[in-house]
Amino acid sequence: MITSSAQLSPGVPTADQPCIASQANTLGCLVSKILSRTAPTVVGFGEIHHDGKADRSTLEQFTREVVPLLRRRGFRHLVLEFLLSDQEVRHELAAYREARITLDQKQAPRLFAYAAMPEHRGFRELLATCRRLGITIHPGGPTSQEYYQPENQAELKVNKPWPRNVKLFGQSLAKAIGRILADGQKVASYSGLRHNDLLGSETAGSFVPALKQSSRTRYVEIDLIGRQLLAQQLHPLVGTQQDYAVKLREHEQAALSSRQAAVNPRPNQFTIFLR
Q: Does 1 map to a domain?
């Protein structure tokens, strides 16, 4: 049976009480309720990466409805999942933030090559919105030197066409988040849902176990699941996280029959099913 976080009721949907969205219960409203009740210093958003077929991607919805809310709540830093985060990537991010370059593939080739967000329209909108609101984007990903360490070569031969060591990516995200926390700042992250997993298994490549070592960290994770991606992508992607996957599946029918729903399968972990 799914356990719910009772201290978050009323107002926040739980596993036993799915919240069907109305005009008041938009994505932004649901996230606002969660942040009000939990007051995190770190909030990790996870997505199933967009396949390019939907009219509106998860990243676009996050950018339009959640990013302004985060800024109002004092989050001035966003760690974004990158495939590589070498110095050139950081230079291009800084140059765009300072309006020294435009956001196109000629002036910022590494940003588009190494961002883990595969659809460029939503990626452009996110960076533009963060610049306008004064939110600094930090690349969360390994450097080339880290990526090609000999001990990582075994895992780099799988998961083609882009070989990925998900554990290494989780460690890299944790480092980027930790640097911001060390300065006493609140931070949000946006990545694939495997990386912000409270279960914290090594196969999931989660950054959460490293965050738990900091006594100052109040962590909440919010997974954003596009309704159009449920049938074809939800099951195989989270299948390695069996416990979490089973709990999600129990609410899949509720999500498919509603415009939008949110569930709270365990304390400080939320899943919002998008329209």
A: no
